[in-house]
């Protein structure tokens, strides 16, 4: 059980694997690019480990290592192919995880400001939030943009906290990967793991999660009393 602490005054969310289950649309889009280049596709589960460090790393992890070594232009070309394929199929199977709408409603009811920070390319991040989470207002929705460091760099997370006027230590950061837990810890935020996401509870706890939640609504414990709800 985590130590009780000051209650969170704001919530910063990761997107892929935390608010939205985007695995199938991301994996299918990369597989389409791989097959277009004559490389073998991966089973969807493999993408749980590939996603998280941005699109170039996603593509690089999916490609055969020898092919990447042999042709430096392969990753950028496949990234372009991915943008095209994902642009066509980003919303085929993606949507909020069970319990996310209820959590967001409960945070709105409490007047808790919410923001999204993703390593997904910024335009796709905006589109996913606008179209798959249309009912909720987020104070900031930021994806990967040229000129800004990706997570686990804590810079953008800290800027969001500053813009909200909330001390980093009073921000609950909910994410589903080691990258997110490192970002949260680097920013001095309350690192909460989304156990339903792409990577699972043991990776989250090994990378410094204060707790790995099994259901989204459990986050309210940190907002209402600064720790897990008893029982
Ligand atoms: O697309 C990625 O690389 C990861 O996106 P996320 O930061 O929302 O998990």
TrEMBL record:
Family matches, as InterPro entries: HAD-like_hydrolase_sf, HAD-like_sf, HAD-SF_hydro_IA, HAD_2, HAD_sf, PGP-like_dom2
Listed EC numbers: 3.1.3.18
GO molecular function, one term: phosphoglycolate phosphatase activity
Catalytic activity: 2-phosphoglycolate + H2O = glycolate + phosphate
Top EC class of this enzyme: hydrolase
Record keyword Cytoplasm present: no
Regions crossing the membrane: none
This protein's UniProt keywords: Hydrolase
Pathway the protein acts in: Organic acid metabolism; glycolate biosynthesis; glycolate from 2-phosphoglycolate: step 1/1
One Pfam match: HAD_2
Domain of life: Bacteria
GO cellular component, one term: cytosol
One GO term of the biological process aspect: DNA repair
UniProt record similarity statement: Belongs to the HAD-like hydrolase superfamily. CbbY/CbbZ/Gph/YieH family.
Name of this chain's protein: phosphoglycolate phosphatase
Organism: Aquisphaera giovannonii
Species lineage: Bacteria, Pseudomonadati, Planctomycetota, Planctomycetia, Isosphaerales
């Amino acid at each position: 059980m985590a130590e009780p602490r000051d209650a969170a005054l704001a919530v910063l969310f990761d997107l892929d694997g935390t608010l939205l289950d985007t695995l199938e649309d991301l994996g299918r889009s990369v597989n389409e690019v791989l097959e277009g280049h004559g490389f073998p596709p991966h089973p969807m589960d493999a993408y749980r480990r590939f996603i998280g460090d941005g699109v170039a790393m996603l593509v690089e992890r999916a490609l055969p290592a020898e092919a990447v070594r042999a042709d430096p232009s392969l990753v950028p070309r496949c990234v372009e192919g991915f943008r095209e394929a994902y642009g066509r199929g980003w919303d085929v199977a993606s949507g909020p995880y069970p319990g996310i709408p209820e959590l967001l409603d409960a945070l709105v009811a409490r007047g808790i400001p919410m923001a999204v920070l993703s390593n997904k390319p910024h335009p796709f991040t905006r589109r996913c939030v606008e179209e798959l989470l249309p009912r909720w207002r987020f104070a900031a929705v930021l994806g990967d943009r040229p000129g800004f460091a990706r997570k686990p760099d804590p810079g953008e997370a800290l800027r969001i906290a500053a813009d909200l006027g909330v001390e980093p230590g009073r921000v609950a950061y909910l994410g589903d990967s080691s990258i997110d837990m490192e970002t949260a810890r680097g920013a001095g935020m309350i690192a909460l793991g989304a156990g339903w996401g792409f990577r699972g509870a043991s990776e989250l706890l090994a990378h410094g999660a204060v707790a790995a939640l099994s259901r989204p609504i459990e986050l309210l414990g940190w907002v209402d009393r600064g720790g897990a709800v008893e029982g």
